[in-house]
Amino acid sequence: MLWTLRKKILIGYGITLAVAMVVFLWAFVNLLRLGHASDAILSENYRSILAAENMIDAIERQDSGTLLIISGYEDDGLKQFRTSESLFLQWLGRAKDNITIEGEDEIINSIDTGYSSYLVNFSSLKLFLRTEPKKAAVYYHEKVLPSFTAVRDACIHLRDLNEETMVKASDHARRVARKAIWSMVTIGSGAILLGLGFSLLLSNFLVRPLRQIMEATQDIAEGNYSVQVSAASADELGRLSVAFNTMVEKLRTYHDLNVGRMMAEKRRGDAIIQSIEDGIVVVDAEFKITGINRTAAKLFACETGNTLDRHFLEVIKNEELFNYIKESAQSGSSPKIEQGRNVLTVRQDGGESHYLFSITPVKTETGSMIGVVLLFRDITSLKELDRLKSEFVMTASHELRTPLTSLGMSVDLLREGVLEKLTDKEQQLLLAAHEDLQRLKALVNNLLDLSRIEAGKIEMDFDRVPVQLLFEKAVSSLIAQANDKEVQLTFTAPSGLPKVKADANKTTWVLTNLISNALRYTSSGGKIRLYAEHFGAQVHVSVSDDGAGIPYEYQTKIFEKFVQVKSDKATQGTGLGLAICKEIVRAHGGTIWVDSTPGEGSTFTFTLPVSE
Considering the entire predicted model, what is its pTM? Predict the structure, then answer.
């Protein structure tokens, strides 16, 4: 039996009509159940009501906590307030994610704004309790209580609005169900009759031109662009045939025109890549190399012709580079690489070469990822220059040590022997010389330490060290200075904190340097706190103060050599302490950074690896 297109269409429409009838019956049964299922449809309104109820409960608990604080139970009240604050914000976030009806977003915005005002008033109330306790109750009734009432009323309004919506929607669903039953009967019957008539007519018009177009399409797929189909009628199928012939003609023209152009563009792109002195490697979305120039091929000891269309790791066996490429391809942006880790060191011809690499994703105009480009810039000469500079600084600092020691002894002898015989001005000059010598000695010692660390000549005595011990050693050496300045110096290490792999003496030096800086910029009556937190395979150690803070323009370069924040207190340092801290932390395999707001204080944090 020959299965013609006409028969297939008729059979297909017959099956479709049968399915339509089944669907019709199924829809008829389910529409009867629609009225009973309105509660499921309104589940989103129920979530908003649940969020409103929980927000009401949370802010009422916060108000109870506020009253406890005013009554003198500050710790219990503050704990209850903060716990309820977290719950309130959690449910407020769920309410924001579940806006489904008109006017709900305005109510939620008013809740958000009112709650922020309530938190500000609560903070002001705590300040009154510390400074003017007698006015705290008055401030509560005038400010805190009205803002609490406004937020609670807004939450009640949100709950009532969703309850009204649920009732209206339920009634509407029942009415729609009744109408849908009758409309389905009418439309379904008409669709069946129309479908049968349409199937008979359509099968007579489609067979002949569609067969021609199918055969022509096969010829085009095989590369034959000279094929044409006849347009025997003036209807849609005839116009389709004319449009098909026009498309074939344009495809032939485009093919003839662009094959040569594409080849020329490819050769031009290859020539540009080869002419660049820096090393370039181009990979596609599947991490296969699609382009590499001679510099990069020489760098990785491979042939340019043997690398194309091969996976990156087949040619360049560097897992770290591949992970950066993968991260860039997944995020659509250049990976964030810590300074110093973006340098690739390669041993060539008995020596070492250093290449600064950058990774850039390549995207289309629509934002889809098509590949990643790696650029390798030779910085061997710069590295050598930096090494020579460090050696010069080390040598010069070492040579300065002896005369500085001699000068220091001479000045000390003068101070002990003839200080009383000198005039006041001569004594001031001698004291100034003594202070300048001390600063020079500190500068030379810091330069020597920094040069040793950069040159990798400093010895690290790693051990399993509890963070509590590091805090105790650092605080004990500076607690006297903190007391003299009337600054509160404390530390906390949570129970269960794992031991870290660290050089105890050098890590303590980092902590004492950070504490000294905090003391320098923290006024009398301020606070300095040391604390630690465990994150995965690292422990984050922080030194926080409520001092003057660091201006934003200094925060990106505070760990560079000789960088000091401009202030009256900056003359007390050498500008090398934080640079040395950074190198010591790096030697531990960690990182260091600062979070600071001018006028509100600073927090310096560095990481130490957890000891296995």
Answer: 0.41
